Amino acid sequence: MKFYNTSHTTEYRLTHEVGDRISRDRIITLTDAVLAIVMTLLVLEIVVPELSRSEVATELPKRLLELLPDVWSYAISFIILGFFWIGHDDQFHYIKRANRTLLWMTIFYLMFIAFNHFLQLSLEHMEINRSQ
User: What ranges do the domains of the chain cover?
Assistant: First the structure.
């Protein structure tokens, strides 16, 4: 981090955050981190079937087929999040400066993205209840 002297005072401030300005790179990094975490959490919901050695040959194909709705839900959610990430990357190609307003807009955007995981779990739960 670089420091600079504010003209007539001996007060030093960080150059990447002065007043209302925020480093756009920090916003991009925050977005990348949140998306990476949410995308990782999606796959953790797919539960690997537990089988004994004697059951593997007969039960494994059946159990893997039972996982297809979970895998399908994961794939759709992952692709949707990928679209959000690509859109955010495209937007920040044109944004040269950032401020607190953009930071708060991004935080609410990320809150919506993190909520996607809850929506995916809710849809899976409704599908399970409907099939019973």
Answer: 21-131
